[in-house]
Structures are given as C-alpha cells and as structure tokens.
C-alpha cells in the first residue's frame, strides 16, 4: 500500500489495523511490515531509537512492501514533524494536542506553503511521496493525539480543524487524564470508557478517523466493532518479552 492509498483509506474512514514499533531493530521491523498490517507506527516519542533508527525503520517498512510507515513524533514541533516526514513517514501522530490551535500548528507543519509551513527538503521521502508539494500534501496524514484533560475537553474543536485527518487515543495518558492513579486504573474504568466513546463520537460527527492504541488483537477488534476507524496492536518490545517468557514457562513446567 502506498502512502497515497493509505491516506485515501483513512480519510474514507475504512477500517485499518496497525502495529507499534519501539525498538531500533530494522530487520525485525521489516519482517513485521511483511505480515499485512495496514501501517506500522514507529514511536519517536517514547521509543528506544534516535533519528537514524527512525530512518532505518522507515526504509525497513518500505522494504517489507505491504505497510505504510507512520511516526509518532516526540513533540508538536515543526522540526520534529518535518524530519519524520523527510525520512519517509506517510504521516505523523502528534502527541499532547490540547486545542484547535495546537491542531492547526500540527497541520501547518505537515503541509508545504501556501497551505502550511513545512520546509522543502524531502531527501528520502521524495522518492516515494510526492515529490511535488501538492502531491505530498495529499498523501500525508496528520493524526492528533487526544490524551490530556484539555484535549478531551476540546476534542470536538480539534476534530473539526481543517487538515486533521484523524485523532488517536493514547490510553495510558487518557486514563491519567480522567483521574486514574496509573494507566489501566480500574477505579476510573467507567470514566475511561466514556472518554473513549466521546472521542469516537466526536470524530464521527466531524467525519474524521478515530484511532486507538490497544494491548492486543482482541482488544483492537473490539474497538473497531465499537466504531473506531483504526487500531494499533501492542508493540515489538512487549511481544518479544512475552514470547520469551512463554517459552521459558513451557520449559520450566
């Protein structure tokens, strides 16, 4: 799937499933990208990789040939967003979007003038996305994370911001945002589920995609059944540890 095809799919609010990568492991990322996920998201915010790791991951995803590479950037910053896109990301997930103003700034960083303020220098992305600015703009998706009390309060305005292709729920921070003492706190389970439903509804009313991070495929399927447009599954580090632990338990039994 090309970046342009993925952008069309997302904007049409067709269902999509992705995988989450936090390790600087391009060979592993390439193998994951061959499995058939619609996208593979590389975490430059909390992931254990630097810019060279991000660049290698984008090349590995392209080599896999079946998924589009996305990047969760470290901040709502034009430089961070531009570097991720120049590395070949088909879109960015921007954390800590609290308001429509934040959303407009993120959109501007992903679009070339006159629509935005992205600086032209697609050293790698120009090989496959664009390279004409208008074509690149149409092929690049912008997803705003809803994960703070302010973002939750302003979710309808964020979803209605021109150029926002979708919103993305960060469950850990969203749980804290609704009063949880820790991610997954059962004491706020009802409040958390209501927030998840409110975000999906706001996105639907605005006609944009709604995405969410999930711990496993079963949860991803449940969220899609609930009306979410796309869902990311777990991450490579968690699955590596889990698989190793399961094999050790099998031997010890």
Structure, described:
The chain is an alpha/beta fold. It is built from twelve helices and eight strands. It has helices at 3-11, 26-33, 51-64, 78-86, 100-110, 133-139, 149-153, 155-159, 171-177, 189-206, 217-225, 236-252, and strands at 16-21, 39-43, 68-72, 91-94, 141-146, 166-169, 209-214, 230-233. Strands 1-2-3-4-5-6-7-8 form an eight-stranded parallel β-barrel, surrounded by eight helices. Helix 4 (78-86) links the parallel strand 3 and strand 4 (91-94). Helix 2 runs parallel beside helix 3 (51-64) and helix 4 packs parallel to helix 5. The mean pLDDT is 97. This is Aldolase/citrate lyase family protein. Keywords: Lyase, Metal-binding. One of its GO terms (molecular function) is lyase activity. Residues 18-240 form the HpcH/HpaI aldolase/citrate lyase domain. It comes from Saccharopolyspora mangrovi.
């Amino acid at each position: 799937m090309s970046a342009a095809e993925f952008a069309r799919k997302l904007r049409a609010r067709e269902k999509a499933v992705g995988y989450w990568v936090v390790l600087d492991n391009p060979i592993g990322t390439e193998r994951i990208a061959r499995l058939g996920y619609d996208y593979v998201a590389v975490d430059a915010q909390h992931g254990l990789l630097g810019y060279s790791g991000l660049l290698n991951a984008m090349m590995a995803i392209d080599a896999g040939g079946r998924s589009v590479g996305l990047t969760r950037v470290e901040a709502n910053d034009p430089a961070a967003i531009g570097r991720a896109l120049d590395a070949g990301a088909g879109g960015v997930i921007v954390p800590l979007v609290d308001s429509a103003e934040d959303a407009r700034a993120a959109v501007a960083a992903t679009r070339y003038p006159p629509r935005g303020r992205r600086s032209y220098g697609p050293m790698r992305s120009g090989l496959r996305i664009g390279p004409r600015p208008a074509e690149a703009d149409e092929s690049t998706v912008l997803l705003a994370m809803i994960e703070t009390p302010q973002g939750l309060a302003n979710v309808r305005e964020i979803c209605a911001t021109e150029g926002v292709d979708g919103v993305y729920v960060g469950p850990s921070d969203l749980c804290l945002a609704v009063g949880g003492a820790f991610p997954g706190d059962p004491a706020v389970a009802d409040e958390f589920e209501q927030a998840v439903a409110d975000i999906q509804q706001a996105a639907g009313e605005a006609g944009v995609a709604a995405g969410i991070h999930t711990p496993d495929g079963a949860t991803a399927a449940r969220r899609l059944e609930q009306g979410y447009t796309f869902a990311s599954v777990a991450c490579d580090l968690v699955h590596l540890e889990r698989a190793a632990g399961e094999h050790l338990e099998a031997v010890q039994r």
